[in-house]
Amino acid sequence: MQLINKRHLTFAFVLGFMGLLLNLMPIPLFGNQQLIIGNLFFVIVAVFLGPWYALLTALMCASGLYIVWDSWHPFILFPLEALWLGYARRKEYYSLYADIGYWVIVGMPLFYILVRFVLEMPDSYMFFTTLKQGINGILYTSLGAIIITMLPQRLHIAAKLKNQHRKSFNHQLSYTFTQLLTLVLLVSALIFSNLSINHQQLDVKRHLEDTALHLGKATETYLDNHISAIDTAARWLSFSAYDSEQWQSLLSKLHKNYPDFISMLIANEQGIVTLSSPVTNMQQSQDNAAFSIIDRHYFQQAFFNQITYISPVFLGRGFGNDPIVAISAALYLPQSPIAPIGIIEGSLNLAEFSQIYQRIPDKTQHDIVLVDENNLVIYASPALNKSPLSEFVFSSSGFNYKTSLAMLNIKQLKHKSPEFAYAKHIIKNGWTLYVLTPFYPLVMQVERQYFTTFSILLLSFLVTFALIKVVSLRLTKPLEAIAKKFHNWHQLEQDDTIFNDSTPQEIFTLSRSILKSKQELISYQLELEEKVAHRTIELQAANTKLRLLAEKDELTQLYNRRYTETHFPRLNDMCQRSCAAMAFCILDIDHFKSINDTHGHQAGDNALIFIADMMKQCFKRDTDVISRYGGEEFLIILPLCNPIEVKPHLDKFRQSVSDTPIPIGQNVNIHLTISIGAVYSDNHYHSDIDYWFKQADINLYQAKTDGRDRVICNQLTSNKQDKQSTA
Ligand SMILES: Nc1nc2c(ncn2[C@@H]2O[C@H](COP(=O)(O)OP(=O)(O)OP(=O)(O)O)[C@@H](O)[C@H]2O)c(=O)[nH]1
Fold first, then answer.
1. C-alpha 723 – ligand 1 centre gap (Å)
2. Nearest CA to ligand 1 atom 14
3. Among the residues of 103-243, which ranges form H helices?
4. Per the confidence metrics, is the pTM higher than 0.80?
5. Which of 69, 138, 345, 462 stands the most exposed, by the fewest C-beta atoms within 10 Å?
6. What are the helix (H) ranges across 91-168?
């Protein structure tokens, strides 16, 4: 047996190559989920050529996925699937049903184990990815199965599909519907899920961007308010001459109006803090006799560059060690608005930025991070656990994901799976506000959506499958019934559970046509039977006639020579078995020629008929055989006879012929004589008629020679010399 068929190997190889190419171009679904179609080629090979060729094709298809996914798990999952399908096909299971079995029993559990224990994939994705894998498998198998169904029969490689059991119409119809249904439902479910997921993601993106913009603006307004408070206070103080008490009172009032400043101060041109709010701050720092802020940015920017300045975040000093953002502006003398005499500064309490966070309607789903121009955290929502002044470290993620969302990781920076989707807003002083939403709930949402969609799909599949069964049975049951009950047609005709109003028109018409044909066939059969019976009678009559013609002499209606010769051995055997005597006699009409010559041939015939009738009357036992042996010569064979009575009986007959006037024409009677040569035996038999004939003929000759009208009869012996004449 040839193990590898070159043609089959080429077929498997070419399809494998096509699968490899198609698998290099997976269709992106949500996130990093992709739909693969190339595997349909090993489904085709499994159905046509069985498991081992399918294994080759599957390995090639898996190579394409290995290149795209950079993971070796396709080399386990899909070759196994190909072997499963190939063996299932050998057992004559439909490939789609077999594949559903594979993914439920082997594929999905195996994939789960691989993902859980071998591959790096976050737990949150497992259920979703596993489900998707199974659905994908069923999708490409149904696609492959449909292609096989649609391929013209001549393209099927028949060699491997030999000895398949014929599937019922019902099964075939159900399977074809199921293939179509599975494909259509899966594709439409995937398309609609994806459209809806994309829509949802756009919503999420828009919402994030809106929130970032809104919160960014709020932050800007918040800062602007405080900047303008410092700015206004600086101008206002610059218009009034320095008066320590008055300024302190003004500073305290201002602080009261802007409680988000953790502290406020006024410093002179040497950077020495002269006034503060709360005043207690100054009293607490009395020990630091000359508390100087000359080295601080906020002093230098406001005093030397004479701008209203907002600082990055930094650790406060002097009045406490809180991380703060300082807002400062220069102070002038009323008469000299060019040369500053000091600064006014307010330190914003970073905790107050939580007010911004409070504005988010859904805090469980959103977090914010506000960083300064140095990427140091000013404020982060509590769940993120980022302390102010710490650097905001994150990594961008989800590069392979099909999504319009920007994504980043904060906790596991090297992980491929994204932790957050985000939008950011850059505030005009160089700060950045990030609005984050965890990615996992989005996955969960998609997972729920997929689960709901496919549950509905499964339900509709089951309902439709049941419907298909009903429709298919409605079509096939009458056909089955027609086929099964063809012989009991009348029973079928009355069976309105099979043929009722729901029976399709074509099948109903077919059933009526078959019924009509059947009735015509029956009547034709009856007619034929009648004709045959008639012909049989005619034939039997003809046969009888033929047999009689073959056995009887036409003129005398005695048996002819052929019959006598054929049946003689049987008569001989019968006598030999019972050791009974048999007599063999030749009867010849004397001078018959002269009758012909004198009265005509017809007269001769009449004489022959008359003599024959006399013979019939005389030798009438069932076992006696009288035949016309030729011309005017007759044979009389008398089995089971009494040897003593043979000659007297023959003599009696001879005498009666001699005494009887024989009518040979109208009013013409003549007298005839006969001569008989006979032999009998009760201990010596011979199945050859010629032997008997010869012995009897000798006696006939003797009778003729001795003057005719006599009987010469003797016992038959093997030796002619032993003969005892009884004449
Ligand atoms: N009418 C008629 N004559 C027949 C038939 N068959 C034979 N014959 C005649 O029977 C005659 C027999 O004549 P032969 O054999 O010379 O014998 P025979 O005249 O009877 O004389 P012997 O036998 O010596 O007494 C012939 O003339 C035949 O033509 C037949 O069927 N019908």
1. 30
2. 593
3. 108-113, 123-150, 169-239
4. no
5. 462
6. 95-102, 108-113, 123-150
ipTM associated with this complex? 0.94
Ligand 1 pocket: which residues have CB below 6 Å? Answer: 588-593, 596, 601, 604-605, 608, 631-632, 704, 708
Three-state SS at 268: strand
Whether the per-residue pLDDT at 726 is higher than 60: the answer is no
- How far is ligand 1, taken at its centre, from the CA of residue 623, in Å? 29
pLDDT at residue 568 in the model = 93
Class of domain 6-165: mainly alpha
Question: Which of 593, 627, 654 maximizes ligand 1 atoms within 8 Å of its Cβ, making it the mutation to test the pocket?
Answer: 593
Q: Indicate which atom in ligand 1 lies nearest the CA of residue 601.
A: 1
Superfamily of domain 198-442: PAS domain (3.30.450.20)
Contact between 650 and 658 under an 8 Å Cβ cutoff? The reply is: no
pLDDT at position 507 over 80: no
Q: Which amino acid is at 376?
A: L
pLDDT digits (tens, 9 = 90+) for 484-496: 766 665 555 555 5
User: Where is pLDDT greater, at 185 or 608?
Assistant: 608
Domains 6-165 and 198-442 share a fold: no
- When pLDDT is cut at 50, 70 and 90, the band that residue 121 belongs to is low
Angle separating helix axes 439-484 and 169-239, nearest 10 degrees: 170
If you measure from the C-alpha of residue 671 to the centroid of ligand 1, how many angstroms do you get, rounded to a whole number?
A: 16
The stretches of 391-434 forming alpha helices (DSSP H) are: none
Q: Quote the ligand 1 centre to 593 CA distance (angstroms).
A: 4
Domain ranges of the chain: 6-165, 198-442, 561-722
